[in-house]
Structures are given as structure tokens and as C-alpha cells.
């Protein structure tokens, strides 16, 4: 299974993941440049990504993720926090853009 990260320079990077990993863990393993000031605890909002597809398969945004998103810049309806998003086979092919 894989996710595709789109970086600020618009380059695309396919990265493999396993069931149960968070999007942030997968990004870090692949050295995708993404902030994580609270170290993946769904508090700081710095791991903000824009999800481009599969919206109907994403888990709903929890209250904690919603609160942390208040700290992110440039939030849109596609915004999620990479550390709060747990991946499974339903999300194979997910496209996550790192906001400019
Ligand atoms: S790393 Fe802080 S909210 Fe994700």
C-alpha cells in the first residue's frame, strides 16, 4: 500500500505504508519534509496536510484534531493533521499535499 506526498515544489513521492501507521510516521520514515513540533501528539497543528482524494474513506475529524487544526495556517476543507490520520488499506493511493 502506498501514499503519495506532494511537496511544496509540486514533486510527488510515493511511499509505502503498513496498516495502522499514521500519515506522519510514514512521512518521517521517507524523510518527507513535514513539521511535527508536538512529536505527533495531535496538539500543535504543524503537521498540516491537504488531502486531495479519498475524502469519503477518511475517518471523521476528532475534537482533538479539530482543536489542533486551529493552530494550522491556511486550513481548508481538505485539511487534516498527518499525526492524527491512521492509515489502512482503504487509504491505499491517498494523496497528501504539504501546504506552501
Ligand atoms: S505533530 Fe503536532 S499536531 Fe501533528
Could you characterize what this model shows?
The protein is α+β, with helices and mostly antiparallel strands. The chain has a single domain (2-97), classed as Roll (Ubiquitin-like (UB roll)), CATH 3.10.20.30. It has helices spanning 23-29, 63-69, and strands spanning 2-6, 12-16, 48-51, 79-81, 94-97. It has a five-stranded mixed β-sheet. The mean pLDDT is 97. The chain binds FE2/S2 (inorganic) cluster. Residues 24, 36-38, 40-47, 68, 81, 83 line the site of FE2/S2 (inorganic) cluster.
Unreliable spans are none
Main pleated sheet: 5 strands, mixed
With strands numbered from the N-terminus, the spatial order across the biggest sheet is: 2-1-5-3-4
What general outline do the C-alpha atoms trace? Answer: globular
Q: Give the N-to-C terminal Cα separation.
A: 26 Å
Bound molecules: FE2/S2 (inorganic) cluster
* Average pLDDT reading: 97
Count of discrete alpha- or pi-helical segments spanning 4 or more residues: 2
Radius of gyration: 12 Å
- Approximate strand percentage: 15-25%
Order of helices and strands: EEHEHEE
Q: Which percent range fits the helix content?
A: 10-25%
CATH superfamily (homologous) name: Beta-grasp domain
* Name of the top-level CATH class: Alpha Beta
Give the count of structural domains.
1
Under CATH, the topology is which? Ubiquitin-like (UB roll)
Number of E strands? 5
Amino acid at each position: 500500500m502506498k501514499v503519495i506526498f506532494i511537496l511544496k515544489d509540486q514533486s510527488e513521492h510515493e511511499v509505502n505504508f503498513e496498516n495502522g501507521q499514521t500519515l506522519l510516521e510514514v512521512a518521517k520514515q521517507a524523510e518527507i519534509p513535514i513539521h511535527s513540533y508536538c512529536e505527533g501528539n495531535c496538539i500543535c497543528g504543524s503537521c498540516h496536510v491537504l488531502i486531495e482524494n479519498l475524502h469519503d474513506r477518511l475517518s471523521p475529524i476528532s475534537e482533538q484534531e479539530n482543536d489542533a487544526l486551529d493552530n494550522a495556517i491556511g486550513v481548508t476543507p481538505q485539511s487534516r493533521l498527518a499525526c492524527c490520520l491512521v492509515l489502512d488499506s482503504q487509504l491505499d493511493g491517498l494523496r497528501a499535499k504539504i501546504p506552501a
